[in-house]
Design goal:
Elements: E1 4-9, H1 14-24, E2 28-29, E3 38-39, E4 44-49, H2 54-60, E5 65-69, H3 70-76, E6 81-85, E7 91-98, H4 103-107, E8 110-115, H5 118-127, E9 131-136, E10 151-156, H6 160-164, E11 167-176, E12 178-182, H7 190-210, E13 212-220, H8 221-228, E14 238-241, E15 247-255, H9 259-269, E16 272-278
Parallel strand pairs: 1-4, 1-5, 8-9, 8-10
Antiparallel strand pairs: 2-3, 5-12, 6-12, 7-10, 7-11, 13-15, 13-16, 14-15
Length: about 280
Amino acid sequence: MEKLKIVIPKGRIYTSIIKLLIEAGYGLEVAERAYTPIVEDDEIEAKIMKPQNIPQLVELGAHDVGFTGYDWIVETQSKVIEIMDLGFNPVKIVAAVPMEYNEADLKSRQIVVATEYENITRQYLEKMNYNYVLLRTFGATEVFPPEDADMIVDNTSTGRTLKEHNLKIIDTVMVSSTRFIANRKALDCPWKRKKISEIEVLFNGVLNARSRVMLEMNIPKDKFDNIIKNLPCMKSPTVSPLFGGEGYAVKIAVKKNTVIKLIPELKRLGASDILEYELRKVLL
């Protein structure tokens, strides 16, 4: 039997990926400290690795598909195919310095720059004409300044950790989020390409559903035209006549962020028996 080899990142984005796979229908069993989850779909073989290693492993063909941050694709200069941007763990890669430093002073001398991102940082520093010595870090980069480094290039989501270490952002080098990637040769195999396409469809269905809810309501005949013309929905509402001909039952899938204003407005316009419930997949 052919197998699609999939590599899952450990660390910060692990939980988001496992949840996505389960919601898509790929049941997983992950034993504590195990690196080879059992997937209910026997056409898939999974392994857990560090996200920093995943782009190169997928490029080399050790795995057909995987999940990693866009920053690590760029940093490792891996030649992989991006299937989709999942949007998980959005971060900025930033240049940060101690609060009391200024950019003019930094460019007037040789500086020490600490980072986990060697390639990304070198490209940035050379583009900005810094005279620098690069110091490779292995985590906790924010603790290096001011004694051990003048600048860091690191990822941040809120900037809170940087502020706690008396650092200020002077530039955004790039933005990153979690990507679903594939090996080029895997996509040349018809069976694997079909399997990857099926996974992409299901992932899109889950992600679309997370941003929407289903609303059901009853609308009296005399209020129907006024309400129905203003209902937001993906294409058009589903309408069924109520027993006895007193009105209509209406279903609409709407964005979650509209519900807080939409439900009170529907009630004001005359809708009744309004139900809201979660969706599992939405395929547009």
